[in-house]
Amino acid sequence: MEKVIMGTRLPAKLWLNEVEDSCMSQIMDLTSLPFAFKHIAIMPDAHAGKGMPIGGVLATNSVIVPNAVGVDIGCGMCAIKTNLKAEGFSYTDLTSIMSKIRATIPLGFDHHTKKQDQELLPQGFDLEEMPILKNQYEACLKQIGTLGGGNHFIEIQKDTATSDVWVMIHSGSRNIGLKVANHYNKIAQYWNEKWYSEMVSGLAYLPMETQMAKDYFREMNYCVAFAFANRQLMMTRICEAIQAVKPETDFDPMINIAHNYAAWENHFDQDVIVHRKGATRAYEGEIGIIPGSMGTKSYIVEGLGNPESFKSCSHGAGRLMGRKDACRRLSLDEEKERMDQQGIIHGLRSQNELDEAPGAYKDIAQVIANERDLVKPLVELAPMAVIKG
After folding, report:
1. Measured between alpha carbons, how far is 134 from 145 in angstroms, rounded to an integer?
2. CB atoms within 10 A of CB 381
3. Are strands 206-207 and 63-64 parallel, antiparallel or unpaired?
4. Digit-coded pLDDT (tens) for 49-73
């Protein structure tokens, strides 16, 4: 349930109990923006980000803020249900499937060595109108179908109620989203200084009537489409890996959602640009995905269309510790034991990988409990095997 705090110009509505000082400072900055609409919405997984909290929702009047979308444009989730039960998978089955996945999907900073079919890339866009994407097009052909690093993952999961086996992916737009975000944020910074605008640190903006904003919006939407195509190709290859070991496998249609983007939407009877940075759209009846960490549960949810959150919900558990802090403070043996006791096949091997350990994240059960007025959980999924970027 939300709590309301008064900001500089607008209120902020928070769906979390505790807020770190650095995150609260960014929330206050958002409330001071002259173009912010109605209020700021902060999801239960929120933590400090670049310019704006991850887990923040910002609605604006006719301006777009590149850093309120972030550098991994279109980052999101996809999930697919199989016709198999968890009891039918042996340890050997799972390790064989994961090995086949690793052989076909590059992880971390790795890309394909050969260009993929250009028909796999988003169609219906004019590259001549997108200078950054035109320059990055050849790179896109090697980046599509690759996982990336950080908190991106591939998981084989089981429904805790029915034992149905699911596959889930978290990934984004790879390097092209970063290139687009940085390019247009620099343009916004330059013009904000030229206009003598009262610019909040890290939140430079572009008025939507300008060509610069239209260019960013176009390239941002390409990145969202690319991130979706990226997940689609990975899911196809994961399904092939599963069928190579389990030929009898069938798959339901894929669920897909993004959690880093901006879009024109109507809220409180006004057309505004809603920026979701680490937040998921949750319109009434809309199916979404809220993942936990690699040692905790994830959820398939149904949106309730709560207007106070601009019809949004969390995008995951949210970080409890910074990456360096987690590597310093967490115990490798304890984090491994935590997953081993659950029978999860994982790749946590060294101290410098603890930034993605379960202990680095908030309690996903508490996050879900805090947003029961935003979403209804439909399926609870427990990890069986995890690949991290």
Report:
1. 19
2. 25
3. antiparallel
4. 988 999 999 999 999 999 999 999 9
